[in-house]
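Sequence dictates fold. Next comes a concrete instance:
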Amino acid sequence: MVFKIELPQVGESVTEAVIGKWLKSPGEHIDKYDPLVEVITDKVNMDVPAPATGTLTKILASEGDTVPMGSVIAEMETDEAVTQADSRSPSVPATPSGAKSETSPLAARIGTLVQGANVGPTGGEFLDTSLSPPTHDTATESAAPSQSNNEKLRFSPVVTRLAAQHGVDLTTLAGTGLGGRVTKKDVLTAVEEGITAGSATMPSPRVPRAAPGDDQVIEPTPIRRMIADHMVKSMTEIPHAWSAIEVDVTGMVEWRAANRQRFEQEHGVRLTYLPITLRSVAAALKTNPRINSSWVDGKMVLKGAINVGVAVAADEGLIVPVVHDAAGASLLELAQQLDGLIERARSASMTLDDVRGGTFTLNNTGALGSVWGGAIINHPQAAILTTEAIVKRPVVISHNDTDTVVVRSMMNICLSFDHRIIDGAEASAFLQAVRAGLEAVDLNSEFE
C-alpha cells in the first residue's frame, strides 16, 4: 500500500518547519523508526522517524523548503497496517494535573533533540543558574556546557552520524559551537577541506573575515530565520508593556549559602537560586491567573496548568525547556526537574515533552551581568519575567522613624506583559507577589 508521510505536529505554537536533510533516498528500504529526515523548528531540531517498514518511493519536500506542520513530505510503500495518525502523532494526550503522561514509541523517537535550538526569548543564557552576576563567589554554578575534555567529546547524534558518513575524526576538530562543541557546520567544513580520520592537520575555528572597512554579510541559518520571524510576530501581534521592581534577596543568598552543602549531599542535586526563584514565581502565577494566559481569537484563555519555561545553554545556543506543574512542586522536586532538564540539554537528549506546553517564561539576563532590561514575550504567552544580576549595594532601611544605610543583596525583576490581557495594576500585583515570596526566605526558612 502507498502511505503518505506527514510532517508531525510538535506543539501548538509551532506552525512550520524547515526540511534540513533527507537521511534516506527514494528506492531505499527503511525500517520502522529509522531516522528519515532532519527538520528544524523554532523550538527543536529533530529527526523524524519512519512510521513503518517499507520502501521510500517519493520525496515531496526538498531540503531547505519551509513547510507547514501536517503537510505530506514523502510517500512510501509498506505492507504494514498503519494509520495516517501514526506519522503525525508525537503529541501527548492531556492528563490531569500531577498525572504522568505516556508517550507512544514513535513520539519518544521523534521527540529526541538533535541539537539545541537558539530560542531564548532575549538571548540571555543561563550561564549561571544561581542568578548571580558573573563576578559572584566561586560557589556560583554554571548551566553552560562544561569545558572539560569529557564534555568536549560529547557529540550530538547528527554530528556523530555525519562524521561517520564522511570519515571525519571528530576528536581532531576545533569546535565553533558553544563551549567549544563540534557542530554540524564544523563537520561539513572539515569535509570540504579534506579533513578525514587519517588527516594529521587540525582546522582552527572558522570565522568569516572581512577586509578592513568592508561590511560583513552573514547568511542566517534556517533556525535563526525562524527565531527572527517568531520575535517579529511577537512584537507585531502583542502590545508589549513593562513593569519592574527591585527585590531584597539577602535572605535567599544567606539561606542558600547555609544549606547548599547539606541539600546537595542529601539529595544528589545542585541547589542554585533558580528553583527558589521558580517556586516563588509559580506561586505568584497561581494567585494571579491573568499572567498565566494567552490571547486567542479575541478571547483571553487562562491556562489551567502552570508550566514555566526557563532558558538553558545547549550545544548550538539556547533552548527553553519547560518545568510542568511548577506550582504543585516542592523545592526539591523543582531542583530535580531543573537538574534533569539541564543535563538532557547538555547531552542533546531532550524530548519534545521537555520543550512543549509552556504557559509562562522565566528569563535570566542577570547571568550575563545585566541589571536592567525588558524581554520580548514568548508568543503566544501573555508575559515573561526577567531576573537580573544580584548586586550588593547600599540600601536605606527605615525602622521606628530612623533611617539606616546597610549593604544588601538586591536584584531587579522586570515583567513584560501583553497589554490586551494585563493592566498595570495586575502586573504590579504579580511582581509584588514574587517579591514577597523571595523576601520571605531567610535563615529560618524550611521548604517542603
